[in-house]
Design goal:
122 residues; alpha/beta; 5 strands; 36% helix
Length: 122
């Protein structure tokens, strides 16, 4: 069973994502409310994938991503960014980063697991 770490500073987003991935996807879900917690959880539990919010206080998703890649324990975990800031014609802060994909907010809880599966070829 895949284990996914959901990282978002918004409690309701984390809860919706967790319920969606557990009930619809049948996966185990860990959650973190920010970058520091995400780094700890990822290193300790080595999830199969990380859903990472881009806009977070203290340590944003891009900073968290770079820290994950710098740690040999977490450098190979696929990361999918989740963001409300996405316009197709605009250059994005994640352009050129080796991410597995981007899921826009608001996401559909009924199709979230399918989107994650498609991005990761599961």
């Amino acid at each position: 069973m895949p284990v996914v770490l959901v990282v978002d500073d918004d409690d309701s987003i984390r809860e919706i994502a967790q319920l969606s991935l557990e009930l619809v996807g049948g996966w185990q879900v860990l959650s973190a409310d920010g970058g520091a917690s995400a780094l700890e959880q990822a290193a300790e539990h080595r999830p199969h994938a990380i859903l990472l919010d881009v806009m977070m206080p203290v340590m944003d998703g891009i900073q968290t991503f770079h820290r994950l890649r710098a740690d040999e324990r977490t450098q190979d975990i696929p990361v999918i960014l989740v963001t409300a800031k996405r316009q197709a014609d605009e250059r994005q802060v994640w352009d050129g980063l080796p991410i597995a994909g981007v899921i826009p907010k608001p996401f559909d809880p009924m199709t979230l697991a399918q989107q994650v599966s498609a991005l990761l070829d599961w």
